Amino acid sequence: MRVLLVGSGGREHALAAALAASPDLTQLFIAPGNPGTALCGTNVAIASGDVSALIAFARQEAIDLVVPGPEAPLVAGLADACAEAGIACAGPTQAAAALEGSKTFTKEICDAAGIPTARWERFDDPAHAMAMVRRRGAPIVVKADGLAAGKGVVVAQTVTEAETAISDLMTSDKLGDAGRSVVIEECLVGEEVSLFAFCSGETAVLIGAAQDHKRIGDGDTGPNTGGMGAISPPARFDRAAQDHALDLMVRPMLKEMVRRGTPFHGVIFAGLMLTTDGPKLIEYNVRFGDPEAQALLMRLNTDLLPALTALAKGSLPEVTISFSDEASAAVVMAARGYPGSYIKGGTIEGLEEAEAIPGVRVFQAGTARNAKGDLVASGGRVLTVCATAPTLRDALVRAYRGVEAIRWDDAVWRTDIGARALAEEGR
């Protein structure tokens, strides 16, 4: 099969590596890709959001399957354009991608399908939003209604912090159209986990689960990021719990989407909070997470390409997904200053030494080659160092050994990925 993978991050490098291992693959293109994906296939200089150029390339190269990595092309209608061109796409339509493109849409689906989630209200007027916050008090969660690349959520511990978030989103134009309206909801308390499934119509096939670490600093301090690390599987969320969550959070949503005439076909990523009252939905995403995909795909035993092909063709009941019993850990190395203004251009060395450690794999994201051909940092989240091992503790030891093997002066990373899970295991 000839496959076009869309995206340029660490998630796409992990997907590219998994696809490249398939005996069914004849050629893999990645648009636009990064220096890491270039080791798995052929990078193509087309931006992931340029839908018309992606379709033109897919036609020119007789692509059999388009695999979307990030959410933005899906919200922009990539799957619809593929369907019009007669090209299979392993992702949802623009209407179905509203599950990620609009927090309000997701909440309405939850209410209609009886899916447990936080109490919420939507606001277009910042004054009304602030009045609600003053009335409800804190802690409280303020979310940009639209796409914000993982940076549109503020878990405000004080009323003042919530007011600042509302002002930043709605009046300071920090996120543009994404923050024109906000969803304000109760703050759920518990452990946050990520559940993944292949979905087609009313059929859902469990992929697995991971736990992301969103905040920039150790001890879950500082601002939210796109993700600073992940473990798989999470503590206190075994296969039985994952199956239960699929029945509670995903299958009712799929039925409601079919009822509305916007069936969902793609990867669903359900962000859940494990509360004392049971799991509750935080959000849906319509693609693999990043860095959760890196941690998950390190454990994949089965061929990913047939599963994505079946998803695109609506033949999911035939799919078998199998993961190893080993644990995996992913540690993100970011550029100093991230998630604000960050340092670019620093030379990165030592990836080969890191990958010489048993069980370690380094996935590239914000990297580039300079005029001399050196690997340099070009983004905020730059590398994801992943490792597998029989236990989570050993996987973390290996991952951090990999981090220490990499030479890059401007790197920052969290030193406590998986610490809470290890504490749970020790109880």
Protein traits:
14 helices; 427 residues; 4 domains; D-amino Acid Aminotransferase, Chain A, domain 1; alpha+beta; Rudment_hybrid_motif; Rossmann fold; Dna Ligase, domain 1; EC 6.3.4.13; purine biosynthesis; 5-stranded parallel beta sheet
Written overview of the protein:
Its cofactor is Mg(2+); Mn(2+). It holds the Pfam family GARS_C. Residues 107-313 form the ATP-grasp domain. One of its GO terms (biological process) is purine nucleobase biosynthetic process. It comes from Acetobacter oeni. The chain is an alpha+beta fold and 427 residues long. It folds into 4 domains: 2-93, 3-Layer(aba) Sandwich (Rossmann fold); 119-186, ATP-grasp fold, A domain (Dna Ligase, domain 1); 191-318, ATP-grasp fold, B domain (D-amino Acid Aminotransferase, Chain A, domain 1, 2-Layer Sandwich); 327-425, Glycinamide Ribonucleotide Synthetase, Chain A, domain 4 (Alpha-Beta Complex), CATH 3.90.600. It has 14 helices and 22 strands. Strands 10, 11, 14, 15, 16, 17, 18, 21 and 22 form a 9-stranded antiparallel beta sheet that branches. It has a 5-stranded parallel beta sheet with strand order 3-2-1-4-5, sandwiched between helices. Strands 6-9-7-8 form a 4-stranded antiparallel beta sheet, sandwiched between helices. A hairpin with a 3-residue loop joins strand 12 (215-217) and strand 13. The longest helix has 21 residues, at 239-259. The N and C termini lie far apart (48 Å). The model has no long low-confidence stretch (mean pLDDT 93).
